[in-house]
Amino acid sequence: MKYDFTAIEKKWQARWEQEKPFAAKTGDAREKFYGLIEFPYPSGQGLHVGHPRPFTAMDIICRKKRMQNYNVLFPIGFDAFGLPTENYAIKNHIHPAIVTKKNIENFTNQLKMLGYSFDWDRAVDTTDPNYYKWTQWIFLQMYKKGLAYKTTMPVNWCTSCKCVLANEEVVNGVCERCGSEVIRKEKSQWMLAITKYAQRLIDDLDDVDYIERVKTQQKNWIGRSTGAEVTFQTTLGDDLLIYTTRPDTMFGATYMVLSPEHPYVKKWQDKLNNWDEVAAYVDAAAHKSDFERSELNKEKTGVRLDGVMGINPVNGKQIPIFISDYVLVTYGTGAIMAVPAHDDRDWEFAKKFGCEIVEVVKGGNVEEAAFTLKDDTGIMVNSDFLNGMTVKQAIPAMKQWLVEKGIGKEKVNYKLRDWVFSRQRYWGEPIPMVKCETCGWVPLPEEELPLVLPQVDSYEPTDDGESPLSKMTDWVNTTCPCCGGKAQRETDTMPQWAGSSWYYLRYMDPHNDKELASKEALEYWSPVDWYNGGMEHTTLHLLYSRFWHKFLYDLGIVPTKEPYQKRTAHGMILGEGGEKMSKSRGNVINPNDIVDQYGADTMRLHIMFIGDFEKAVSWSNEAVKGSKRFLDRVWNLQDACTDSMEYSAKNETAMHKTIRKVTKDIDELKMNTAISAMMSLVNDFYANGVTRGELKTLLLLLSPFAPHMVEEMWENLGFAAETGKMACQNEWPTWDEAKTVDANVEMAVQVCGKLRGTVVVPVDSEQDTVLAAALAHEKVARFVEGKNLVKVILVKNKLINLIAK
RNA sequence: GCCGCUAUGGUGGAAUAGGCAGACACAAAGGACUUAAAAUCCUUCGCCGUAAAAAGCGUACCGGUUCGACCCCGGUUAGCGGCACCA
To answer: Which of A216, A374, A675, A752 has the greatest number of C-beta atoms within 10 Å?
Structure first.
């Protein structure tokens, strides 16, 4: 019988679709398992070979969980708002909704082609008004709690997309999507106060099982630092508040720096003797993008504020004040005390501008370079009451002194900024807010949700940076829900991150038109037990959705503090030479081609076999054959197996070992070694023969990996007649630990640490037995001859090492 | 610069409470079957050496701990990812 994968895969996909064996049942008495993958963006190019890697892995986990009698929720959906679709629509004058619909259809077909056990009845689409109604609803709740606010601030402006970008969308000073230059621009924007959750976003990482690098990356991104805020008086009478993490070095503060945007600069305009020079510098800084500013970090620039001096509160000394763009207005207080002896940037600036350098921590040569080591060994000098203390002692001592004098206090700062939530784009969720001439910003009443995206003639953003919606005067002009007067709708839309911040909740109850999901469903399915996704989403999507979840938790809507109990990440699939796959390199692999040539089961198996799941791997078309060959070999066992349902003596140990290995490896995402264990077992079957019972076990183990072929064999071998379809099995093979070991083991024999041979002894043999066997070994004897056995080291069932002198 | 990760045959990769390095595959070479090809099956496959053995060398590099190190420690180099004037 030939392995006709095309016919077999079609047959079983049709049956699964009809009989729905993968439907999740809310409220079922079995233990629940919620496995989640990052839902795809349905691009026009269709499924990329990068998709099947994480999807197949989670499919395997979920299929195995079902066989272990869990009630599994394994959903799928589409994150369908976004720029590529919009840009395609602009170019081809097709409505983005039509493009999206077509792309989703294509993705759906491709995903079904790969045989994933999704519960398709729960599929969500973020562009469906029944879905984004609740995205808008969550925004309104945030507004009501003061977490959504509108403010004018410098934003990242993409010169090509004509659109505001979040900080996270700017990569190396250019737009993440189109690669064009990004400049700073003042704009009124909706913001979400994620910074209010900064501490909880750090603290609650302790309670979840995320791979360590995700945790560290999130913590670095949030960037908590502990220091002190200190007030410096000035000769103009205004007090300057600065932030420092090194209060211990205050005696070394010899000048101060304000960011060019600091409000005092303007305030002091009339009192400065060099205002023209100052104004020119401020103006130049304003015209630079963040990137330009940071790119010039080799060479410090700045201007002295002539006419004002700061007063160092610890010693009363007057010190000059500069403005420089190495101080950021967005962090701390936008003003610093500069300690050139112990900070690289300050040192560099001081050298250029001729400022005094005062050493306050012993250990370096501050004329040569800043001495920045902050450890226990540094001893304070030139620091009055701190002299002789270590840095570690001086920090709290100074903080205490500042508090006693009433000029400073401990302060925690975060690098994390609030989330710019407005986009001047068409293809996103409309922000459900109305601006009334008398009442100001007014939220739309919840009954009026969803606020549906209107039809427009042109999707192009306007040249002044407003959303295309602003041209829809019929839609924009409305009445105030509050006073009934004239009002206008917000024309900005939400960023793509909005819809993906809560989609895992909608899966729990996707058709609910009363709530985002019912309490019953939320309580039954929460939290997501295992979420796998890409590292590129660690500081964006993952952080944003944790923030939204915590907000919903505070409202009493979701029952858990954290959305995801466990987070893992997959590596990328690279092209043949280890290069990134891209259209321009022409090395893009289309999963359809692999499926056509080898079948979906081979595709699934191979993409799991290819290497360590967490690491990047290069795709090789040649290597796929090996996985296909393995499936062929399994297929051919149908005709070779005996009728016995027992394990044969020759295969018994291998059976138990393989069951153990495959079971444990799947839970640890080591699919590659699970597969190699099954390959070895099949090699054994070819050498020793195979019984029907052995084959049954193999099929159970293999079914999550190659579900279609296994269903067919399951039916052919008569198992389906006995216990039903493979997809409905709730039996996972078990192993007997005692039977995973043979009666005899082969042990390595070393003489003085060098391998000299092997001996076969009964399992768990004591030293005497092994030693006797080892000495009987011809080669070992040769190396021991004429020497004294000084010591013998035995590692049971593994090795014996004879130390002979 | 800071944080994190990685380095193993021609290739993808196995192996860590410190215990036979190279499992499982791909490629290659030889053979069987075949009119032939494909498919399949068998054999070889780290380096050096040998008639074949043996001996020796070998997990990026240098050193250490240990009876024993891919694994632990110190240092170096190269590469990948993230952050980047965050005071």
So the answer is: A675
Q: Which residues contact A547 (CB under 8 A, 6 or more apart)?
A: A192, A194, A197, A201, A419, A501
Give burial (CB, 10 Å; 0-12/13-18/19+) of A556.
Answer: exposed
Q: Which nucleotide is nearest to A296 (CA to C1')?
A: B85
Q: Which residues, other chains included, contact A607 with Cβ-Cβ below 8 Å and sequence gap of 6+? A: A49, A52, A53, A56, A573
As given in the structure block, the two tokens for residue A679 are: 């390959």
Q: How far is the CA of A616 from the C1' of B78 (A)?
A: 18
Predicted-complex ipTM score:
0.94
Residue at minimal CA–C1' distance from B4?
A: A213
User: Two tokens at A439?
Assistant: 């009442």
β-sheet bridge partners, residue A802: A751, A792
Which amino acid is it at A357?
I
3-state secondary structure A360-397: CECCCCCCCCCCCCCCCCCEECCCHHHCCCEHHHHHHH
Tell me the residue ranges of DSSP E strands in A193-291: 209-210, 224-234, 240-244, 255-258
Q: Cβ of residue A262 near strand B, that is under 7 Å?
A: no
Q: Within 7 Å: CB of A277 and strand B?
A: no
Residues A587, A783: Cα–Cα separation, whole Å: 56
Cα separation of A729 and A62, whole Å? 13
Whole-model pTM: value is 0.93
Distance A158 CA to B79 C1' (A): 32
Tens of pLDDT, residue by residue over A176-203, are 667 777 777 778 889 999 999 999 999 9
| A535 CB inside 7 Å of strand B | yes
Q: What are phi and psi of A681, to 5 degrees?
A: -60, -40
pLDDT in tens, A364-405: 888 888 888 766 678 899 999 999 998 888 999 999 999 999
